[in-house]
Design brief:
This protein is of the alpha+beta class. It contains ten helices and nine strands. The strands form two sheets. Strands 6-5-4-9-8-7 form a six-stranded antiparallel beta sheet, sandwiched between helices. The chain has a three-stranded antiparallel beta sheet with strand order 1-3-2.
Length: 287
């Protein structure tokens, strides 16, 4: 039986900066038959307004949001008024910001997932055992989304909260989650992903990345060496459902001054795999 935890401790939703318009296509553009007839563009626009806020833009004007979403100022204002009436946005008359009620959107996903409550005690025990930070994440498009985070006593420069998004191609958990895709899904990802070079060691060549992902699939784990942040090394393994499908990933991360990649494989892979297996066993009982 797993214990319950204070969800408020984990629901600090943040996201990495998003470049370019947040709408998947300009408002009013021809769908070209790509979307179902039942598609409701108003929902897309409302969510685009919410997604326009982030760590770099917690407070915005109507003009700011119009520029980010590709909406006209008049349209952006109508959606803002609607979201204000629903309690998701507040204003001082000129500037707008999200309210805590927006956390309900993330809570609905996390509470339905079941993974955070199941994984947290196992990752807490893992961190107590090895004294390195541990996280759990799921794949969302080209990003991983953190659903659990347990920091160690060591100091890390990368600041993360539950709900944070990181690029899949530059993270150990991302490579493990990509390894769980079908060949067709992986082909589609590699064809369209924005493989941004975050650091000199970030893999941006698509065929090299494919090789890394296939290797992670075959060996059952992935390691990254300072691909996302200087000094940050991490190792990750998948979490499977009862059908053997990859539903999440868990990792251990540290600074290169504490452990190199070979040390992580030698010392951390086995306890990390045990934690993942324990999560899988509990998840099988939950679902």
């Amino acid at each position: 039986m797993t214990r319950r935890v204070d969800r408020g401790r984990r629901l600090q939703l943040t996201s990495r900066p998003v470049s370019g318009p947040l709408m998947s296509r300009p408002p009013g553009a021809d769908d070209g038959g790509e979307r179902p007839r039942e598609f409701v563009q108003s929902v897309e626009r409302g969510l685009a307004i919410i997604r326009s806020f982030g760590p770099d833009s917690p407070v915005q004007t109507v003009s700011d949001m119009a520029a980010k979403t590709g909406l006209t100022r008049a349209t952006a204002r109508r959606f803002l008024i609607t979201l204000m009436e629903l309690g998701y946005i507040q204003t001082d008359g000129r500037n707008f910001e999200l309210t805590p009620r927006v956390l309900e959107l993330g809570y609905s996903f996390l509470s339905g997932l079941g993974l955070p409550d199941v994984a947290l005690p196992h990752l807490e025990r893992l961190v107590a055992e090895v004294d390195e930070s541990s996280e759990a994440s799921v794949l969302d498009g080209e990003d991983i989304v953190y659903v659990v985070r347990v920091p160690s006593t060591s100091i890390m420069t990368l600041s993360l909260n539950v709900g944070a998004r990181m690029p899949a191609h530059a993270t150990s958990m991302g490579k493990v989650l990509l390894a769980g895709l079908s060949e067709a899904e992986l082909d589609a990802y590699l064809a369209g992903a924005d493989l941004k070079p975050y650091r000199p060691k970030t893999i941006t060549d698509r065929e090299t990345l494919r090789t890394e992902i296939v290797q992670a699939r075959e060996q059952g784990y992935a390691v990254v060496d300072q691909e996302l942040e200087d000094g940050l090394v991490a190792i990750a393994v998948p979490v499977h459902d009862r059908a053997g499908r990859t539903i999440a990933a868990v990792n251990l991360s540290t600074h290169i001054a504490r452990r190199d990649v070979e040390s992580m494989r030698a010392d951390l892979l086995e306890p990390l795999q045990r934690a993942a297996q324990a999560i899988e066993a509990d998840m099988a009982g939950v679902r």
